[in-house]
Design brief:
- By secondary structure, the chain is an alpha/beta fold.
- It has a domain of 148 residues: 3-Layer(aba) Sandwich (Rossmann fold), CATH 3.40.50.2020.
- 26% of the residues lie in helices and 31% in strands.
- It has 5 helices and 10 strands, in the order ββαβαββαβαββββα.
- The strands form 2 sheets. It has a 7-stranded mixed beta sheet, sandwiched between helices. A 3-stranded antiparallel beta sheet has the order 2-10-9.
- Helix 1 crosses helix 2.
- The longest helix is centred in the N-terminal third of the chain and has 18 residues.
- It is globular and about 50 Å long.
C-alpha cells in the first residue's frame, strides 16, 4: 500500500530564497522555496521502494509525461535501478517510454489537453504494466485524458505516480496511486516544472511571485 503524500501546509512560506542555493538570475522572481531538492529526492527514493515492492514478479513500463515529468522520471528510474542492484534476487525488469501532454497557458489551464504521440507507440503499450510518471496534478484533466487514451490500447495494468498534487477547489478529484507531496494552491516552478518554458532548470520547487508571472508571460 502506497504511503500518503507529505502535506505542505497552506499559508506556509517554508524556506527563504536566501536560506538555500538558488541561482541569482531567478531570485527576484520567486517568493520562497516550497520544497528543497534534498527532500524531493528523498521522497522519490521512498516511492521507488514502494513501487519496487508492488511490482515484484512483474515487468514495469514507465511512461514519462513530458516535459515536466522528466526530472522525477530520471530520479525515479535511477532509484529503481539502484534497488535492482542492491536486491538482485528481487529485481524487476524496467522499460520506459515518453509521451508529451500540455494544457497550460501562463498560470491557467487552457481547458483542453494536447497530447503528442503516434498510434504505433500507443499500440506498443498493450499487455504491459504501465506506470505513468507525472510532475503535478491540479485539475486532473490531463492525467484523466492520458489514462483514457492508454486504456484503449489494453495495458495489463495502469497506475499513476505524480510528484505533486495541488489542493484546488475545481479539481476533478483524481488521486494518483503514488504521490510525493500535497501542496497548496500556489503556482510552483522548478524541478522541471515550468512557467512558459522558464525555470525548468531550477533545482528546488519554488513559488513564482507576481514579478515572475509578469516578466515571463506568454
Amino acid at each position: 500500500m502506497a504511503s500518503k503524500p507529505i502535506i505542505i501546509p497552506d499559508n506556509n512560506n517554508n524556506y527563504s530564497i536566501e536560506q538555500l542555493s538558488v541561482p541569482t538570475h531567478y531570485r527576484e522572481y520567486l517568493s520562497n522555496v516550497m520544497i528543497p531538492r534534498g527532500l524531493i529526492k528523498d521522497r522519490i527514493e521512498k516511492l521507488a521502494q514502494e513501487i519496487h515492492e508492488d511490482y515484484q514478479d512483474k515487468s514495469i513500463h514507465l511512461v514519462c509525461v513530458l516535459k515536466g515529468g522528466e526530472k522525477i522520471f530520471a530520479d525515479l528510474t535511477n532509484s529503481l535501478h539502484t534497488l535492482n542492484s542492491r536486491y538482485g534476487q528481487k529485481s524487476i525488469p524496467i522499460t520506459h517510454d515518453f509521451i508529451k501532454a500540455s494544457s497550460y497557458i501562463n498560470t491557467q489551464t487552457s481547458g483542453s489537453v494536447n497530447v503528442s504521440t503516434d498510434h504505433k507507440q500507443l499500440e506498443s503499450l498493450k499487455d504491459k504494466h504501465i506506470l505513468l510518471v507525472e510532475d503535478i496534478i491540479d485539475t486532473g484533466k490531463t492525467i484523466v485524458a492520458l489514462k483514457e487514451i492508454i486504456s484503449k490500447h489494453n495495458p495489463k495494468s495502469l497506475k499513476v505516480i505524480s510528484l505533486l498534487i495541488k489542493r484546488i477547489n475545481h479539481s476533478n478529484g483524481f488521486v494518483p496511486d503514488y504521490c510525493g507531496f500535497s501542496i497548496p494552491n500556489e503556482f510552483v516552478v522548478g524541478y522541471c516544472l515550468d512557467y512558459n518554458e522558464h525555470f525548468r532548470d531550477l533545482q528546488h520547487i519554488c513559488v513564482l511571485n507576481t514579478l515572475g508571472k509578469n516578466s515571463f508571460k506568454a
